[in-house]
Amino acid sequence: MNSIKTSTDWETSVPSTLDVEHNKPQINEQQQNSLIQRIKQLLIEQNAILVAHYYTDPILQQLADESGGCVADSLEMARFGKESAAEKIVVAGVRFMGETAKILSPEKTIVMPDLKASCSLDLGCTPEDFIPFCDEHPDRTVVVYANTSAQVKARADWVVTSGIATKVVEHLVREGKKILWAPDRHLGKYIQSVTHADMLLWQGSCIVHDEFKADALLALKENNPDAKILVHPESSYTVVEMADVVGSTTQLINAVKTMPDKTFIVATDNRIFYKMQQAAPEKQLIEAPTGGVGATCTMCAHCSWMAMNSLQGILDVLEQDSNHIHVEESVRLKAFASTQRLLDFAATL
Ligand code: 13P
Ligand code: SF4
Description:
The chain has 349 residues and is of the alpha/beta class.
């Protein structure tokens, strides 16, 4: 298997989740309720909806649900925004999610509470590095994960999300295609193990899921022998190998809901517990460990970029009509083709 090393210049400036949380102004319940009421009023006045990812603060997830928006995975967020009659979409998530919404809904105004909310997969796969790499491998079908910039999507033949990646690659294998996969090496390796596809892997990774460790997980499992292990495939392969279920955020929530087991160890961002607990209040959820004895963590099972989304940020973008997402039209048209291919494929399943 060939591979390429990704640039890591951005790594030194990644904020820790603890710092992001500490820097948020502390507000009491009354202040929180007044922010929520004001946001709800502005959403109605501006014909806007709030679309939030499962990894955002539960208070934002609750607000999205209550105000007629949605809480979803990255694919469903974009699809919901596209199909909604709203003129403005407030995306509580990370940058690539806002861009995907704009790619699919160019006529709508897309805003985000914090434009600095990025993703290590996106940052580790710049168009400047990625486009020449693709050009060097013209015999390969370029498949990129949704966690990428609009320019990277524009160079791809297919955009996929974790929930559908395996099925798309199986389809490409049946067509006899060789694949260039980017950016997540762990997800790429997992897909390769399931499909046996010929895949050239970009070496990016999610710095949140990278912190889950197999040896500490094994010790936790020994203390909870009846617990089932649920793992997002951005985790390292040694963690994925221990899983009872490997799946996207939505697939992991469905597993908690539908499996008869009572206890689950969950290896993904812990803000997903809000929806898991809503779906199955009687089940016990345990956070997968982000290290062994004495280990420290920067993300500690919660993405610091997702943590940048706040009630105050949402209110600010609605009041000031700020933080618009723009995607240059020639880039958008190409990124639309590879993203729409995913939606069309999903509709056939
Ligand atoms: P999903 O597509 O499963 O929502 O995952 C997005 C993500 O960023 C996971 O880290
Ligand atoms: Fe990116 Fe990982 Fe954060 Fe998801 S959890 S947005 S993949 S850094």
